[in-house]
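Deliverable D4.2, example record:
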Amino acid sequence: MNGILERLPCDPLAEQVAARARPGRRLWRIGCALAVRGWERVRQWNRRAHERRMLGQLAQRMTEHELRDLGLTRQQLAWECNKPFWRA
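Output generated by the structure prediction step:
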């Protein structure tokens, strides 16, 4: 029964005291949070790279009239396609 009560969030001060008593668990949470953020960043970079490749393939097939309809020039499109994946 005592173990169940320890897992229930009831008192913020008690949680802080418990976190200080178990520094390994706190480091584990920080490590997990950093790993999740890192993985999200890698997924974002992968998505950007894929979108820019697709945009480059689309740009090769677009006519000047279609580009004007979008309000873009070939130079603007090329600039966007050639940006590194880590730049937004």
